[in-house]
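Consider the tokenized backbone below.
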């Protein structure tokens, strides 16, 4: 073979055709369809240009490629090799018309004997002499965007990370370093964009995924990581060349088929935002113990619970500092319950998530369809479980009394004072809390389950028997819970506000001086001290151990009291509805149904009350644990193992107890704290991960900072004027909306409408100022609904996307009786 030769796809090439030509030929033979090309072998050139004998062959070869223009590239013998790419050492010329190809090819050939090539080879210990290159003449792609891609990250060496660099137009400016382009990082295992440029001009996310997919396919065909050049024109994506990555990369991880799904759409109400290691490990332990006890109560055998220990130990996960449910394990736990195989679809609704799990995941969990004796045996399990629940229901009052007695004994005046205890005593105190309360969580478990059943069943019954009027009565009875402890803080704040309102100028002094302004008003000081004694732990994000309690920082409470003093007279607590009058309004017919409905709804109401009150007891337990852990931090700081008592929140429960009891793997606590603090600081700078994350393989594949399903971005603005959520507290208000994400740094002016993604009992200051409440999440039993009813202000919950749909500062009308929320425009 000599001279100008048209190389058909799949034709073997001689060594003198060079590395680039052989790679293009292989791409063609593997079906990747690079732009058509031919090769001018080195022997076809002489110092003055292309040999005259080759001119006719060149013209014939060009005619097979079309009119042009053409790309004229070098193809050195060792160019694009596995060890040395020779990138940038030879000349490449683009947009060459047919009439200039011979001259351009000669220039490229001459570049191979340029001194810079010799220097490159000498610097790498290669033979000084390299044969002059062959020349590739290729059909030109008129690209709207082009660039390079590495099928493995050349910096980190990770084989499942593809780096894509792109620029608008031709890629030569990017390859030469003349201009910087866009850089994309793609996880090729999950086929997901991990990082994208802030301004995307050359590629879309789909384009980046397509380029990465092409790089991975070429890697598979060539048997090793590849550095490719590509271009996109009106016809689509084209491969221009491929060569091995010459930097060391890591070995490829073995493929896994395991799928894990993490979701925080519900747990974010308990653990919003960033959560420290101590809070997460404490919650993980509590969930494991509580749900073991739950399935045991339902009738699951002890041996089955033991066999599924990893399921209960992994009900939660932590992604980039945020807490998520491990939904697949929740589903596995659900599959253990009696009746799952018969009522799978119904029981799946108990998970309470917005989006069901994929059938591909759920199909392999739990027993299949039961027939014959197996089905009857499952009915027997259901009957035993149902009987057990009936017994538990009859015993419930005593169970709650026993739980409260253990709680009072553990947290009462006779318990250990953390302020005067040493490390060993504090560790023993935590173990006592663990054994007497966390491992004996019977009353909250039983009541929560019965509450869920009673609330749902009674609501369906009222709708079936009495229609919309029945649902309205059900709402009134359930929301009007005067004896729920969640409503007590609002009552007390209103009472303190009334005291302040009677003293001229006191509200302004409270805003300026804080607690110090109370000294001249004994009644206010006494009421304030009583509030702190009972509700100090009901702070913002109360279940997070690192949260600042009201006795440490009473500013939110003082602000709420001052705001309450300024509340208009018409915004007073609503009277509890007359339950008898409500049922009488359903008509005089069917008295037996009304009597039975009244009894059942009343029992459900008591379960709701006990649920809220027991959740307050949970707050007390978490508060006790918080104080014990902080005291341990104090002692570790005194001993020089920590820099600050609050550093303790960056350790796990196991690490903390291990440092005291001796089973810890390290005594170097300060480096652990520094590591964890740095992780949280970096996580705070990133967007929240999405609510639902799918992970293929080990959970660690969700690396910190990665956005496996795309970052959780704000929803696009909507032109809708009205949306409807769940009506929770009657009344209509038109006022300025304030979208609040962090009540510790944001506030309302009196009369503003509070708009939030979710709330918790610590939002007392913003509740006190609000004229109405709109919340994205929640139900009729949510804390926001209960407090709004007590305060006599409209409330709408479960208004999806409210914080993106409603603009901060615009006028809003909230109808808490119908659930209708209307945007009125700029204030």
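A designed sequence for it:
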């Amino acid at each position: 073979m000599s001279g100008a030769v048209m190389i058909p796809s799949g034709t073997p090439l001689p060594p003198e055709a060079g590395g680039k030509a052989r790679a293009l030929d292989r791409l063609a033979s593997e079906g990747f369809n690079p732009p058509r090309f031919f090769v001018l072998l080195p022997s076809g050139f002489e110092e003055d240009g292309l040999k005259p004998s080759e001119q006719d062959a060149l013209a014939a070869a060009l005619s097979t490629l079309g009119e042009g223009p053409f790309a004229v590239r070098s193809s050195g013998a060792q160019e694009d090799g596995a060890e040395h790419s020779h990138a940038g050492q030879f000349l490449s010329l683009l947009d060459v018309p047919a009439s200039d190809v011979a001259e351009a090819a000669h220039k490229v050939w001459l570049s191979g004997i340029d001194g810079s090539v010799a220097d490159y080879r000498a610097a790498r210990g290669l033979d000084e002499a390299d044969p002059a290159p062959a020349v590739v003449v290729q059909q030109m792609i008129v690209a709207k965007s082009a660039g390079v891609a590495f099928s493995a990250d050349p910096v980190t060496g990770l084989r499942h990370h593809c780096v894509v660099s792109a620029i608008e137009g031709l890629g030569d400016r990017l390859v030469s370093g003349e201009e910087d382009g866009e850089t994309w990082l793609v996880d090729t295992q999950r086929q997901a964009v991990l990082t994208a440029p802030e301004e995307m001009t050359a590629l879309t996310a789909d384009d980046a995924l397509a380029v990465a997919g092409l790089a991975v396919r070429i890697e598979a065909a060539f048997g090793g990581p590849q550095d490719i050049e590509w271009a996109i024109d009106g016809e689509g994506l084209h491969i221009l060349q491929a060569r091995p990555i010459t930097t060391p990369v890591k070995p490829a991880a073995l493929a896994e088929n395991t799928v894990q799904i993490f979701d925080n759409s519900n747990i974010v109400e308990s653990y919003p935002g960033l959560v420290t290691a101590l809070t997460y490990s404490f919650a993980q332990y509590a969930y494991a113990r509580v749900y073991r006890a739950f399935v045991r109560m339902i009738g699951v055998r002890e041996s089955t619970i033991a066999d599924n220990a990893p399921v209960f130990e992994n009900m939660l996960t932590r992604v980039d500092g945020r807490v998520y449910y491990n939904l697949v394990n929740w589903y596995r736990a659900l599959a253990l319950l009696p009746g799952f195989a018969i009522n799978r679809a119904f029981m799946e609704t108990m998970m309470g998530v917005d989006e069901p799990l994929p059938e591909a995941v759920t199909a392999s969990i739990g027993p299949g369809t039961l027939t014959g004796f197996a089905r009857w045996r499952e009915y027997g399990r259901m009957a035993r479980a149902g009987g057990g629940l009936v017994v538990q229901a009859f015993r419930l009052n005593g169970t709650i009394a026993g739980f409260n007695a253990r709680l009072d004994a553990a947290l009462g005046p006779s318990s250990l004072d953390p302020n005067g205890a040493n490390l060993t005593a504090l560790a023993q105190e935590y173990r006592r809390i663990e054994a007497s309360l966390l491992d004996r969580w019977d009353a909250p478990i039983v009541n929560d389950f019965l509450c869920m059943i009673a609330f749902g069943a009674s609501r369906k019954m009222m709708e079936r028997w009495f229609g919309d009027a029945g649902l309205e009565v059900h709402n009134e009875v359930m929301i009007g819970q005067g004896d729920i402890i969640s409503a007590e803080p609002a009552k007390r704040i209103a009472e303190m506000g009334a005291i302040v309102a009677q003293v001229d100028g006191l509200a302004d002094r409270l805003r300026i001086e804080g607690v110090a302004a109370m000294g001249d008003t004994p009644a206010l000081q006494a009421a304030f001290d009583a509030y702190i004694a009972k509700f100090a732990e009901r702070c913002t994000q109360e279940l997070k151990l690192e949260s600042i309690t009201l006795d440490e920082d009473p500013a939110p409470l003082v602000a709420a009291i001052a705001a309450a003093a300024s509340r208009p007279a018409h915004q007073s607590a609503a009277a509890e509805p007359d339950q008898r009058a409500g049922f009488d309004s359903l008509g005089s017919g069917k008295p037996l149904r009304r009597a039975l409905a009244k009894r059942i709804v009343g029992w459900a109401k008591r379960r709701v009350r006990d649920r809220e009150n027991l959740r307050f007891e949970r707050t007390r337990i978490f508060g006790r644990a918080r104080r014990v852990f902080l005291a341990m931090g104090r002692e570790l700081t005194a001993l020089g193992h920590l820099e600050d008592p609050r550093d303790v929140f960056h350790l796990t429960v196991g690490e903390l107890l291990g440092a005291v009891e001796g089973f810890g793997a390290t005594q170097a606590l300060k480096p652990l704290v520094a590591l964890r603090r740095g992780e949280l600081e970096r996580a705070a700078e990133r967007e929240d991960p999405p609510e639902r994350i799918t992970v293929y393989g080990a959970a660690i594949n969700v690396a910190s900072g990665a956005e496996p399903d795309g970052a959780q971005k704000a929803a696009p603005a909507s032109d809708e004027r009205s949306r409807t959520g769940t009506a929770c507290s009657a009344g209509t208000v038109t006022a300025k909306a304030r979208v609040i994400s962090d009540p510790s740094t944001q506030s309302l002016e009196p009369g503003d409408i509070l708009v939030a993604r979710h709330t918790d009992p610590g939002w007392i200051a913003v509740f006190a100022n609000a004229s109405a409440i709109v919340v994205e999440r929640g139900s009729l039993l949510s804390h926001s609904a209960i407090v709004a009813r007590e305060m006599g202000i409209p409330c709408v919950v479960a208004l999806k996307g409210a914080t993106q749909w409603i603009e901060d500062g615009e006028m809003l009308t909230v109808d808490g009786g119908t659930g209708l929320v209307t945007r009125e425009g700029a204030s």
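The mean pLDDT is 85.
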